[in-house]
Amino acid sequence: MSEVKISASASVDRQTWEKVQAVLECHYLTISDALYLLMQNIADEDDLPFSCIIPGPETIAAMEELENGSLPTFDSVAELMADLNSDEED
Asked: Hey, which of 22, 59, 83, 86 would disulfide with 55, CB 3.0 to 4.6 Å?
């Protein structure tokens, strides 16, 4: 298998950069080593080695409704359930 040499850049605030460097130095790793290990892990596991949930369009729309204050409100659970059940019948 041939190797691919890649050059990439990332924007990271200085405080984060310094923390990362300090942790990696304790393990005798470079940023390049860490990125290689991350990519190798992703390739081996077919997944990210950490939880990363990115909301889809429907979730984003609901979050915007919440922020705008345009979501319906209910005075009781019975009212909420009646509204939910009326949507099922439509």
From this structure: 59
Domain extent for 26: 1-51
Same domain, 35 and 4: yes
What is the DSSP annotation of 10-78?
Answer: ----HHHHHHHHHHHHHTT--HHHHHHHHHHHHHHHTS-SS------HHHHHHHHHHHHT-S---SSHH
The pTM of the full predicted model, rounded to 2 decimals, is: 0.56
pLDDT digits (tens, 9 = 90+) for 39-59: 999 999 999 999 989 999 999
The length of the chain is 90
Number of domains in the chain: 2
